[in-house]
Amino acid sequence: MFRIGAKLFRAARIGGSAVSDFRLPPTRFFSINNNVNTGFKTNPVALQMINYAISLARAQKSDESYAQAQLVLEQCHSTQSDESAKGLVLLAMSTLFSERGNFGEAIEKLQKIQDLGLSSLAVRVAASEALAGLYLESYQDDFSSATADMCLQLLETIRLEIGGGGSDILEARAKALKGLVELVHGNVESAQSFFEGSQGDKGCFGNVALSFGEFLHCKRNFQMARELYQRAMQDVSERKDFTDSQSVSACNMNLEETLLGATCALGQLEAHLGNFDDAEEILTAALKKAEECFGNYHPKVGIILTCIALMYRHKAAMERSSSLLIQEGLYRRAIEVLKAPPLEVEGVGATRSRRDILALARGGYAETLIVQQNRKAEGEKMKQWAETAWTNRRLSLAEALESSESSTKVSVIDTRISRVL
């Protein structure tokens, strides 16, 4: 048996005071006999109840169906004696909370996993990945960075304690998570160090392949990014969550979100290359997938509608054509689904999550209005709101809307965390 000591990162739930608490946890134990390299043995009863609860919640996609599913998971959690099984149940509970936009409850469930004396390192890594993902989506970027750092620190401690490698796959996930955090922070060069060597690594699938692909996409290495997006899509479609340590995941970093994110990213890439027929087909498939998974009025649907509108914008610019009516309809629908605040509410304080997506949608919409003489004033007001709301550190709103071949920068929308990279 091996004793592991590592600091845990704790933070108040979203909506409350953002107070962090760094403390030394109780003694942890990971047994090499319980397969620390690959993580856990799935409890078949727990897995059956988890799958039933998730299916129950998503069947109706209503507040009632999600509440019933949580009751099933709470009962499952209370009857489990194995802490790895408890961890899986908490991951499932956090996923359902996050799908309904209840990030506070989702984060609370993920933090409880850190308090368990888990034998499963895979569950711990999945919880860290999900926790950082939720912090990124809610613009708590410092917390996301601390969470990613502690995940890396935990794996390094285990490597030192057991005198050799732990899990290459889990280490690849932890590094890719940190790379994504750095990319969101605008630190492209720093992000590169966490992706170096990933492409040929056996752990380069799912979120690792997607995040690495987004990094290369931002660097305009389109061919290699396309290969990684396609790899992420293929690998994820062949896996099922909660069945093995390689695929266990939660919240906005789960398998469904990864597949959706890779599909949407690939569609954006084809648009950037000028392959608009392919882009439209891929983005339409992503839209259909989002509607099936989350419902027609979920914010993820609004994000993909924004991507489609931007694709038509790029197509019109490249082909010297006009598609103002199509663009305007898509932007209006996206803004409606994203539940944008009134223009009278200033951009920066208007919304905590998805504000860069909203800024893109309203910025693109504004440009369709400004060219119409009778709506120019409305467009100027919308443009001002979008510029105020924009917070991306790597590129300006104008650069994000521009996609010409001469541009040195390209924006990529990550549907997992609802951020512009």
Salient structural properties:
mainly alpha, disordered N terminus
Description:
With 421 residues, the protein is mostly helical. It has a domain at 286-343 and 352-420. Helices cover 63% and strands 4% of the residues. The protein is built from 18 helices and six strands. The protein has helices spanning 44-60, 63-79, 83-99, 103-114, 121-137, 141-162, 168-184, 188-195, 206-218, 222-237, 255-272, 276-294, 299-319, 324-337, 347-350, 355-370, 376-389, 397-401; strands at 2-4, 8-11, 20-23, 28-30, 413-414, 419-420. It has a two-stranded antiparallel sheet. Strands 2-3 form a two-stranded antiparallel sheet. The protein has a two-stranded antiparallel ribbon with strand order 5-6. Helix 13 (299-319) runs parallel beside helix 16. The longest helix has 22 residues, at 141-162. The protein is globular, with a radius of gyration of 21 Å. It starts with a strand and ends with a strand. One of its GO terms (cellular component) is mitochondrion. This is Kinesin light chain. InterPro entries: TPR-like_helical_dom_sf. It comes from Solanum tuberosum (Potato).
